Amino acid sequence: MATFRKRAGKWQARIQRKGYPDQTKTFLSKSDAVSWARQTEMELERGSFIDRSELEKTTLGELLQRYLEEITPTKKGATNEAYRVKAWIKEPIANKLLSGLRSADFAAWRDKRIKLGKSPNTVRLDLAVISHLYSVAKSEWGFDGIGNPLNQIKLPKPTGGRTRRLELSEKEKLIEALSETQEVKTIVQLAIETGMRRSELLSIEWDKVDLENRFVLLPDTKNGDSRAVPLSTRALMILEGIDKHPSGKIFLTRPDSVSQAFNRACKRAGLENLRFHDLRHECTSRLFEKGLNTMEVSAITGHKTLGMLKRYTHLKASDLALKLG
Length: 325
What we know:
The protein is mainly α. The chain has helices at about 30-45, 60-70, 80-90, 105-115, 120-140, 170-175, 180-195, 200-205, 235-240, 255-270, 280-290, 295-300, 305-310, 315-325, and strands spanning about 1-5, 10-15, 25, 210, 215-220, 225-230. It has 3 domains: about 1-45; about 60-150, DNA polymerase, domain 1, CATH 1.10.150; about 170-325, hpI Integrase, Chain A, CATH 1.10.443.10. The strands form 2 sheets. It has a 3-stranded antiparallel sheet, with helices on one face. Strands 4-5-6 form a 3-stranded antiparallel sheet. The protein is elongated, with a radius of gyration of 28 Å.
């Protein structure tokens, strides 16, 4: 049975029913309160009632904070996702209650980010965090009445893969510009030779390096599988020239420090539009140019599908022309 009372010029409706938590909501007029109470009691009677009380007192920012503390640390890409979640918490939209958020709110946020010059891929990844947040809230945190507003909006079309190649002359300039940071210089040289990701290179420990049989074992990669990376003669020489640290780790530099040193070196060398991850693209392309087949290259780089391998492969038309005769 619903009860109504006037407080501070507003009307509060309250419904108490055995087996359900108390439902209360405040309205400007009594008629609105009565209408809500009738609708809610009807849903309770039919068994179709969905408790939305949590949505009406929880903001998107509060839910994101919980996600940051409970879900993000369990992911392989926890560091990168943490940056995205923290950025979302600072957005004005994070101050809105979940009950008031609509697809249009996120569509407007999407359009604003694109106008600010953010890449479609970046916007897609940012929105993917919110989509997963809603899924977790519904399936694990008891927000039964929550729906995913991102299901109704269009995501920006992904851009094509990068095609940046590192020319031989550019490589020489880059290595020279890295002379002041010897460890980062070694990391870059190994990235070009092995195609390993930055995170994989920084995770290598000496007990996973087999110099005699010329490979490095990566027990836990980005896609969840282990991978043995064969070492070229050049890669072998680079590893043999590294002094062993008591910690057992080969490299001690932080991931962000590697990227910062790399970007500074590119600037000093006058290299434009070059990212550290492009070195993985470069190595993959060079493997094909050496005559390795698709299965051999995927075994080295860890790409699971031909589509992904193609995105990381940029063969030179001039080299292909020579093969045609």
